[in-house]
Design goal:
The complex is a heterodimer. Chain A is an alpha/beta fold. Chain A contains 23 helices and 20 strands. In chain A, helix 7 links the parallel strand 6 (126-129) and strand 7 (154-160). The N and C termini of chain A lie far apart (68 Å). By secondary structure, chain B is an alpha+beta fold. Chain B contains four helices and nine strands. Chain B has helices at 20-30, 60-71, 103-113, 133-143, and strands spanning 6-15, 37-42, 48-57, 75-81, 86-97, 116-120, 124-131, 148-153, 157-160. In chain B, the strands form two sheets. In chain B, strands 5, 6, 7, 8 and 9 form a five-stranded antiparallel β-sheet that branches. The chains are: A alpha/beta, B alpha+beta. Chain A binds chain B through residues 117-118, 121-122, 125-126, 129, 146, 176, 178, 181, 304-306, 310, and chain B through 15, 18-19, 22-23, 26, 30, 47, 67-68, 70-74. The complex binds thiamine diphosphate and magnesium ion.
Chain lengths: 558, 163
């Protein structure tokens, strides 16, 4: 039977398992919106296309499935850009559908024409312009395959209006198409290299596992936990690696790098062997690269060959799906007690606790711990960017896979509220809590309308310090406390605004938040809690620009 | 560091479709490498094109560019071609004004270098030279004083000597 391009697009997405799309219509995508209901896919209308991309991203991060967003040609498409870049940096599997002017007008500066493929080329894993309706089904399947295979990432499909309207027989396809994307193959060479890594790991006396975002992407949660338990290997995580593994014993040393804990950074500095799994050694992780882990032999496992040895010279590496590699590794790793190493770590931990150098992020951190205590264990935390992000990452104890969602790579303010909508809709059995600063909150505040409209029961905590807090802290330490352009206003009444959007809201002080937190946690639907925080509630320790991971500045978050 | 800079020939097979060259060129640009010459054409299979690029670059170049190129969905294979194990040729068209004075010298040069005459008008001719880079440049240097007006050159195309 003949179908339109729009119908074929949606039917194929549906067959590939897509059930929700986040978006915003325009004239060039109306054909798609027009038949969305009939194909059984639900569309969620956001209030700005950036939010559609972040919501799709949050959906994917919370579920492991592909997130899909849609925008019209021109301004709709360009509004997606920040969201696509965020997904690209953190390797989120995502499909971005964009409307495009009719094929006859391409390249003519037609009304609402932008070269969105050109604009997004460096921030997509791949992109397609569908020029013939007969290519529609195969293109969509291929896009899904590319988005999810190997190192995942966003794929954009540009859809000219006439191609969406054209009719074709669903299963008639122009011959050709792409070969299936090959998963990284684990063969003899990989096995040989892995054996070498395991030998070094077994021989090492002070090993540390460095866990990156790749573990989540390859769903290697249990494999990683098993390796850690069997080998008695302490681990640290990058920002993207948080929420990959939960071990109740003291093996989790926390986050490393610029915003890492004193303990994690010091132990990495002392270790003699580091095995990085799914981590790319970004500058946020290593600080000054030459001074990173000076005593350690460094081994790396990653599915993406470009991540290997990109930022740091590794001594040995394997290109492999992480789950496959960890399954192999589990059989080979020795059960070893490592009593000396564990005792040394414990002594360091006690010393740090006594000196109080890993402080608890002040009243803001305490507030986050209280929220976690009164939410169910399966709750997912979504962070924004700024001090609030570091407070949340340090204070929220992630107990489930995908239990913390944060825009680590791009550091996109305004991410959290829209991403939480996607996360909540995708992970239906999980509560979702947002931690955001006032600055980031204002960047996508319009999404309160979406949350209210669909009654998406997310709990939003806005830390209101009246400032771009993280910028203020940098100015405090490195610009002689000249607080230029980092002061926001305290004239805005956030709770009234929330109520204006139909969302119940309370305001509390970070020193006495209990009542508000109880209301937040017991609310049936969405709820916004404004927490007033002192503008000097910073995070410590921090690592100054140009310094190594053990040259921290200490202080107290008051 | 400067003396480690050398010429690198990268040969890749890519899907023959719109936009692929832009993606490939984007990789070089983002990594900060200049493309000295570039050749793109269909292979025996019309679905596949070969791109041959030449860049002057440091030793880190090959590894970085290869990895990033391999990441592109449309790139089928990438290899660096080394001098000893590959055949490398380029072609140049040379336009020269002809007058009474340079005519005899020009005829001798055409015979000596085995240039192909592509077009011959009364006062202007176009010659074709093919060979390795050195050959082509020798001819050009010889002809320059005789009144070369314009040139067009292909840049290198290359194939591995053993398949
Ligand atoms: C879109 C965007 N613009 C600018 C920045 C730079 N930036 C990083 S943190 C920060 C301050 C964030 O302020 P706020 O949201 O109030 O959080 P706080 O640090 O106060 O918790 C800024 C401006 C950014 N990360 N993202
Ligand atoms: Mg703030």
């Amino acid at each position: 039977m003949e179908k339109t391009g729009a119908e074929i697009l949606l039917n194929t997405l549906s067959k590939e398992g897509v059930s929700e799309i986040f978006g915003y219509p325009g004239a060039s995508t109306l054909a798609i919106h027009d038949c969305m209901n009939e194909t059984g896919i639900k569309h969620l209308l956001v209030r700005h296309e950036q939010a559609a991309a972040h919501a799709a991203d949050g959906y994917a991060r919370a579920t492991g499935k592909v997130g899909v967003c849609i925008a019209t040609s021109g301004p709709g498409a360009t509004n997606l850009v920040t969201g696509i870049a965020t997904a690209y940096m953190d390797s989120t599997p995502m499909i971005a559908l964009t409307g495009q002017v009719t094929t006859g007008l391409l390249g003519s500066d037609a009304f609402q024409e932008t070269d969105i493929i050109g604009i997004t080329m460096p921030i997509t894993k791949h992109s397609f312009l569908v020029q013939d309706v007969r290519d529609m089904a195969s293109t969509v399947r291929e896009a899904m395959n590319i988005a999810t295979s190997g190192r995942p990432g966003p794929v954009l499909i540009d859809l000219p209006r006439d191609v969406l309207a054209a009719r074709s027989n669903d299963d008639e396809e122009v011959a050709g198409g792409f070969p299936e994307q090959q998963e990284a193959h684990f063969g003899e060479e990989e096995r040989r290299r892995l054996k070498q890594i395991v030998r070094l790991l077994n021989e090492s006396e002070r090993p540390v596992l460095l866990v990156g975002g790749g573990v989540k992407l390859s769903r290697a949660f249990t494999e990683l936990a098993d390796v850690i338990q069997k080998g008695n290997i302490p681990f640290v995580t990058t920002m993207m690696g948080i929420g990959s593994v939960y071990t109740p014993n003291g093996f989790n040393l926390g986050l490393i790098g610029t915003h890492g804990t004193d303990l994690a950074n010091r132990i990495v500095h002392q270790s003699d062997f580091i095995l990085a799994v799914g981590a790319r050694f970004s500058d946020r992780t290593t600080s000054v690269i030459e001074e990173f882990a000076p005593l350690a032999t460094i081994a790396q496992i990653d599915v993406d060959p470009t991540s290997i040895g990109k930022n740091i010279k590794t001594d040995i590496s394997v290109v492999s799906d992480i789950r496959v590699a960890l399954q192999e590794l589990l059989g080979l790793v020795n059960e070893k007690k490592r009593e000396d190493w564990i005792a040394r770590i414990d002594r360091e931990r006690e010393r740090i606790a006594k000196e109080g150098s890993d402080d608890g992020c002040g009243p803001a951190g305490e507030c986050i711990r209280m929220v976690q205590e009164c939410m169910p264990e399966k709750t997912i935390a979504v962070t924004d960017v700024g001090l609030n992000q570091i407070w949340a990452i340090r204070s929220w104890k992630v107990k489930i896979p995908r239990g913390l969602i944060t825009p680590g790579g791009l550091g996109t303010m305004g991410f959290s509220v829209p991403a939480s909508m996607g996360a909540r809709i995708g992970a239906i059995d999980h509560e979702v809590v947002v931690f955001t600063g006032d600055g980031g909150f204002f960047m996508n505040i319009q999404e309160l309308a979406t949350i209210g409209f669909y009654n998406i029961p997310v709990k939003i905590v806005v830390f209101n310090n009246g400032n771009l807090g993280m910028i203020r802290q940098i100015q405090h330490h490195f610009y002689s406390s000249r607080y230029r352009d980092s002061r926001l206003s305290d004239l805005v009444n956030i709770t009234e605004i929330a109520k204006g959007f139909g969302i119940p809201s309370e305001k509390v002080s970070a020193d006495d938040p209990r009542k508000g937190i109880e209301k937040l946690c017991s609310s049936e639907g969405p709820f916004l809690l404004e927490v007033v925080v002192d503008e000097d509630n910073y995070v410590y320790p921090i690592i100054p620009p140009g310094k190594s991971n053990v040259e921290m500045i200490y202080g107290r978050s008051e | 560091m400067k003396n480690e800079v050398k010429e690198h020939v990268i040969s890749m097979l890519v899907n023959n479709r719109p936009g692929v060259l832009a993606r490939v060129a984007g990789v070089f640009g983002r990594l900060g490498y200049n493309i000295e010459s570039l050749c793109v054409a269909e292979t025996i299979s019309p679905k596949v094109s070969r791109i041959t690029s030449v860049s002057k670059a440091d030793p880190a170049f090959t590894e970085k560019v290869k990895k990033q190129l391999n990441r592109l969905v449309d790139v089928i294979s990438v290899a660096e071609l080394e001098d000893g194990t590959s055949a490398k040729r380029e072609m140049m068209l040379i336009g020269i004004t002809i007058d009474e004075k340079n005519r005899p010298e020009l005829s001798r040069a055409i015979a000596m270098f085995g240039c192909t005459v592509i077009s011959m008008q009364e006062s202007y001719c176009i010659l074709q030279v093919a060979g390795n880079k050195g050959d082509v440049e020798t001819v050009l240097n010889f002809l320059k004083p005789l009144g070369v007006k314009d040139i067009a050159r292909t840049g290198a195309v290359a194939l591995e000597s053993e398949s």
